Amino acid sequence: MLRYLLSRLLTFLPTFFGVTIISFSFIRLLPGDPIIVMAGERGVSAERYEELVQQFGFDQPLWRQYIDYLGGVIQGDLGQSFVTKKPVWDEFFALFPATLELSVCAMIFAVALGLPAGVIAAVNRGKLFDRTLMSTALVGYSMPIFWWALLLIIVFSGMLGLTPVSGRISLLYYFDNTTGFMLIDSLRSGQSGAFTSAVHHLVLPTIVLGTIPLAVIARQTRSAMLEVLSEDYIRTARAKGLAPFRVNGVHALRNALIPVVTVIGLSVGTLLAGAILTETIFSWPGIGKWMVDSIFRRDYPVVQGGLLLIAVMVMIVNLTVDLLYGFINPKIRKR
Amino acid sequence: MPLLDIRNLSVDFATASGQFRAVDGVDVSVDTGEILAIVGESGSGKSVSMLAMMGLLPWTATVTADVMSFNGQDLRGLSPRQRRDIVGKDMAMIFQEPMSSLNPCFTAGFQIKEALRLHLGLDKKERHDRAVELFEMVGIPAPEDRLKAFPHQLSGGMNQRVMIAMAIACNPKLLIADEPTTALDVTIQAQILDLLTGLQKDTGMALILITHDMGVVAETAERVQVQYAGQKVEEQPVADLFETPHHPYTAALLAALPERATSRHLPTIPGVVPGQFDRPKGCLFSPRCKYADDRCREQPPAPAGTELGVARCHYPLSAKAEAEA
Amino acid sequence: MAETTMTAAATAAARPGRLKEFWFYFRENRGAVIGLWFFAAFILVAIFAPLIAPHDPTQQFRDALLKPPFWEEGGSLTYPLGTDAVGRDMLSRLVHGSRYSFYVGIIVVTFAASGGIVIGLIAGFAPKWIDTIIMRVMDIVLAFPSLLLALVLVAILGPSLTNAMIAIAITYQPHYVRLTRASVLSERSKDYVTAARVVGASKSRLMFTTVLPNCLSPIIVQAALSFSTAILDAAALGFLGMGAQPPTPEWGTMLAEAREFILRAWWVVTWPGLAILITVLAINLMGDGLRDALDPKLKRS
Fold this sequence. Notes:
Pfam families (chain A): BPD_transp_1, BPD_transp_1_N
Subcellular location (chain A): Cell membrane
Keywords (chain A): Cell membrane, Membrane, Transmembrane, Transmembrane helix, Transport
CATH class of the largest domain in chain B: Alpha Beta
Number of strands of chain B: 11
Number of helices of chain C: 11
Transmembrane segments (chain A): 12-30, 92-124, 145-175, 195-217, 256-282, 302-328
Protein name (chain A): ABC transporter permease subunit
CATH topology of the largest domain in chain B: Rossmann fold
Oligomer: heterotrimer
Largest sheet of chain B: 6 strands, mixed
C-alpha cells in the first residue's frame, strides 16, 4: 500500500510542474503586450505600467520569470487581481466554499440516484424499467446543461414560481459567512427561514450540475453490475439463501463499485467544467463564475491563478480516487 | 420416503433460437446418510438439475417436475422466501471453481459468518467461535488468521475448504458437491474427497456428488446415476455398475478408464453430446453407440426395469462379458 | 509490387464480408439505427440549408418581433417556429445553425483524431523516455477541465467559432493519444507485427500499415462520441459568448441571445436547445451502436 502511494505521488510531481508551466505561459502567450491587453479600454498610466512590469518580472529573462513564479506558487503567492488588487489566493478561498457546496450537493444527488438506478436496471435487465432508465440516461448524458438550466428556470421559477432564479440565499437574510457553506451558515445564524431559502436556491443548480454525472454513474453502474451478476460468487451468495437485496446490494454492488468509483472520480473534472456554466447561469458566486467573469474583465492574473488552482484540485481528486481505488479493491490493497 | 425425491424433472431454457431442453425427465432420490454420484460428460444436465432444485437458475429457465420434495416438503409451490429458508441451511451446495466462487471483496470470515447469522441467528461471538470450529473441521490451519484473509490470498484447495466450511455451516441435511475437485491439483483432489466423505460420515447428511470422473465415483459413492444429454440413462449401486453396466454409454465410460484399458490405446467415445440443434430423433446416444441399429435411430427407448439398472436402452447389456466387449 | 497486389486483392475480398458483418450487428441495435437516420437527416439539412430555410437567417422582420410558433395564438405559417427578439425567423436560423454544428464536429474530430493518432503511434513505438514525456504532457493537459482550458485558449486567441474549434480540438487530443497508444501497445506484441518486423518492414510502414488498421475500432467509437461532445462544448462556448459571435445563427449563441426572454417567449429558448439535444442524442445513440458492432468484446461492458 505504501509503495502504491509513493508511486502515485511520483507521477504527481512532474504533472504539477507541467501545470505550473502552462499557467505561467498563459499570460505570456497573449498576443501583443500583455499589460496593454489587460488594461484594454481602461488604459494604463506610465507609472502603473512600470509597476506592473516589475510585478510580473517582464524585464527579466524568461527562465528567471518562471523560477520567480514557481517560488511564489510554492509559497502560496499567486499574484494579485488586476481589477480588485486583492491577492488571487484570497479571492479563490472566499469563493471556493460556494463551488464546493454546490459540487458536493450535485455529486450526492448523482450518486444517490445513479447507483440504485443502475443496480435496479441491471437486475431487471431488458425489462421496461431497464429500457426506460437507459434511454433517460442517454438523454441526460447528451444534455446541453446550459439549456437544461434555462428549461428548469422556465418551469420551476417561471411557471410554478417555486424556486429563485439566482444567488445563494434571499437578500432578506444577512449573516456572517463563518464557514462559507450557506447551508451551515444559515442554520447557525438562527434566522428563521434562512436555511429554507438557502435550500431553495440550491435545488436547481444542484439538479443542473448533477444531471450528467447522474447519467454517467447510472450507465456505468448498470454495466458493471451486469458483468458482476454473471460471476460464480453471486451464485454462491444465492446458494447461501441470501435475500436478493443482500445478493445484489452487498455482494454484487461491492464488486461493481470498483469501476464505478473510477468513473465518479473522473466526473469531478466534468463537474468543474459544468460548474462554469451552472454558476454563470444561476449567478452563483463560485469559482466557475469567477473564472468566466475574470476572462471577460481580462483580469488575467486571476485567470492564471484560477487555472493553476483548479488543475491542482483535479489532480488531488484523481490522486484520492486512485488511493480510494486501492482501498476498495482488496487485490491492490494487500499486495 | 427418501430425503430428496425428484420425479420427471425437466428444465427448459429460453434462448435466442428457441427453447432448449437441458434436463429431460430426470428422477433423483437420495436418503439421509447416503452418497449418490451423478455422472456424465459436460452438457449432460447434471448441474442444471441440482441448480433447478435449489432455485438458482436464471429467469430464462422453466422448471417442471411431477414430484419435487425435500425433507417431506414440496419444493414446487414454495415462495422464493420460503425456499431461501431451506437453501443454504438444510441443503447446501459447493461449486467447481473455488477461486471464482468466493467473493473477492469480502474476507473468508465475512462470507461464512453471513450464513451463520442469516440461518442460525447467532450473535457476534457465537458466529466467530462457530466459524473457527468449522475451519478446524475442514482442516484449515491457523483458522483465526484465515478468517481475515481474502480469497485471492488463499490457494485453490484452501478456498475449496472454505467453500465446504460455508456449506456445512448450518448442519445441512443434504450437501451437493458440483465437481468439487475438477479445478484442483491431483494431490489436493484426494484430500478434498476424503474430507467430504469424512464429514458425510460424521454428520450423517446425504451427499450428492456431481462428477464426470468414474474414478472419483468408485472411491466415494454408494449409488451412481449416469446422465446423458439431459436424461438419466442408468442407475445402480456402485459395485454392480462397475461389474455389469447395462447401458452402452456407461460401458463406454468405464472402458475409457485408464485402469481398465486392455490395449495400448485408451478407448474413447467418438463424437460429442448432442446440443440444441443436432438432437437425434431416436435414442440420444445412438449416433455414438457402437451397438445402435435402425430402431435405436428411430424410436426413443423407455427406461428398463430396476433389474437392468433402469437403463434407457432398447438393448440393455446384461452380461459382464458383453459389457467389456 | 507483387506484395501490393496481393494485399489489395486480400482487402477487396475481405471488405464486403466485414462491412456486412458490421451492418448485421449495427442493425440489431434499434436505437443506433434511429440515431443514424437522425444523423443523416442532420447532414442533409446542413448541406441544403439555404434551400430548406424559408428566410435569410439574419434578416430582421421589424414588424414581427417575438412572434410565437404557428400553432400558438398570434403565430403564423410565415414563421413556423416563431421569431426572435429582433424579428429573425427561428426555423431559418435553426436550419442554418446545423451547418455550424456540423463544421464543429467534423473539424474538431479531424484535427483531434489525426493529431492524437500520430502522437499516440509515436508514443507507442518510440523509446520509453519519449513515451513517458508524451504521456506526462497528456496528463498535464487532462488535468484541466476541457471547457475551462478551451475558454482560456479562446481568451488567448480571441473569441470566434474558428478559435473555439481549435481550442476544443486541442483539449480532445489527449484522449486519442491515450487510446491509440494503449491499443498500439497491446497490438505490438502480437505475432503478426513481429512477423512484419522480421520481414523487414520499415518503422513507418509498421506503424501506419501494419498496426494502425487494427487499432481503429476504439478510435472510431471515440470519434463518434467526441463529435457529439464537440458540438456540446462549442455550443457552451457560444453560450458563454466565447464561441461564434452574434448574429451568427449558431445554436449556443442563439441561446445566449435568448436568455433574457426566457420568461416571456419560451420558443426562443426551447428550439435551439432542443436542436442541440436531438443532434447530440442521435450521435450518441449511433456511437453506442458503433461500439457494439465494431467491438463485440466491449458489447457486454
